[in-house]
Amino acid sequence: MTSAISHTSGGRAAGQREKAELLHALHHIPGSPLLLANAWDVASALVVEAAGASAVATSSAGVAWSLGAPDGDALDRERALELVARVADAVKVPVTADIEGGLADTAEGVGETVAAVIAAGAVGVNLEDGHRTPMEQAGRIAAARSAADKAGIPLYLNARIDTYLFGIGEESGRLEETIGRMHAYVGAGASGVFVPGVTDPETLAALVAAVDAPLNVLAGPGSPAVAELAALGVARISLGGKVAGAAYAVARRATEELLTSGTYDSVAGAVPHDELNALFEN
């Protein structure tokens, strides 16, 4: 990936460090969470940036689907990294890449992935624990942090905790288990924590209070509004794969409408052709 490696040379490396520092700062503005409508390709990243986003986050699900793979550590690492490089080349704002479980089986492999993500121009990653033990995941986070330190980039490492998303452990002890993982992962080098599957205010308030690190939540229809989450102390709000899923829903509705009623209302409101083209000319 020659084009990706060029990001770390000379003035570009300094610019990348500045973007990394900016991404960190965006997580520490009281009452103003970092808002991320996750992208999955260059066009969606440019649309997100043009709409005013302060950063671009990739969606592991959206990226996998767009490249012909299911979500869930099935995508080939090289293909995933090529996409990160294209997005980072295309936008001016900081890019954080969802690398699922690290796109590797071992902690050493996670370090290699993170080094490649930085070489591709990104300044943040999401790293999920899934069904791994907290001790194993802490080792993977430490390897990721070490790789970033060696690259000289203050990577924003967002540690995703899947206790609620996957229903891990007994429900009665899930909050305590999650908080324990939060402490372990921050201690291993995570910059912040991401707990998808939780939107109730009481639990979120407890998570915010438990660890001195930014909390990221996954939001969608039915979730508390941004203002309410901000008041609880949430530092980052992501839409995850929902934006890509909504785009694919339009494709399905348009196809079904075309094949049944023979009409075309499903594509009303599309971004104009010339407007999309102009995003690629800057």
Q: How would you characterize the overall build of this protein?
A:
With 282 residues, the protein is an alpha/beta fold. It has one domain: TIM Barrel (Alpha-Beta Barrel). The protein contains 12 helices and 8 strands. It has helices spanning 2-5, 10-26, 42-50, 60-66, 77-90, 107-119, 134-151, 174-188, 201-210, 226-231, 242-260, 273-279, and strands at residues 34-36, 56-57, 95-98, 124-128, 156-160, 192-194, 215-218, 236-238. An 8-stranded parallel sheet has the order 1-8-7-6-5-4-3-2. The radius of gyration is 19 Å and the shape is globular. The two termini are 24 Å apart. Residues 1-6 have low confidence and may be disordered. GO terms for molecular function: lyase activity.
Structural domain count: 1
Q: What is the tally of beta strands?
A: 8
Return the CATH class. Answer: Alpha Beta
Characterize the main sheet: 8 strands, parallel
CATH topology: TIM Barrel
What's the structural blueprint in terms of helices and strands?
Elements (H helix, E strand, L loop, with lengths): L1 H4 L4 H17 L7 E3 L5 H9 L5 E2 L2 H7 L10 H14 L4 E4 L8 H13 L4 E5 L5 H18 L4 E5 L13 H15 L3 E3 L6 H10 L4 E4 L7 H6 L4 E3 L3 H19 L12 H7 L3
Parallel strand pairs: 1-8, 2-3, 3-4, 4-5, 5-6, 6-7, 7-8
Helix pairs in contact: 5-6, 6-7, 7-8, 8-9
Descriptive terms for the model:
8 strands; 8-stranded parallel β-sheet; 282 residues; alpha/beta; TIM Barrel; globular; disordered N terminus; 12 helices
